[in-house]
Amino acid sequence: MNRAELEHILRASKGTTGESEFIIIGSQSILGRHPDAPRELRQSMELDIYPRRRPELSREIERSLGELSLFSETYGYFADGVGPDTAVLPAGWEERLTAVYNENTGGATGWCIAPCDLTIAKLAAARPKDIAFVRALLK
Length: 139
Prior knowledge:
5 strands, globular
């Protein structure tokens, strides 16, 4: 995934939910602080996202923009509608969010978790793909 694809999912998420602020967690949140992150950090084609004020609407994102949706089939990337409890995040993570908001987001703002918080979440999950991501991030 690249930054333009993240911005596209933000536009589509706003259209799907009517919400304008979203939290982005997971590996592709790296694109908040590092829009030109190395390819090895952008291998995932899914964006973990939920509406900031109404996380229960993440089900709508999943239905409309998820892995088996027409959106995914059309564009080759997709949104994974998650919730606030999906990742283990340290105290203060909300103070370190990076906003993605520009003419390409269609009035939506994506709040990406900071790389340090992403690293903690990945280490807490400790799946092989998470450990590989942290190794790549450290390089």
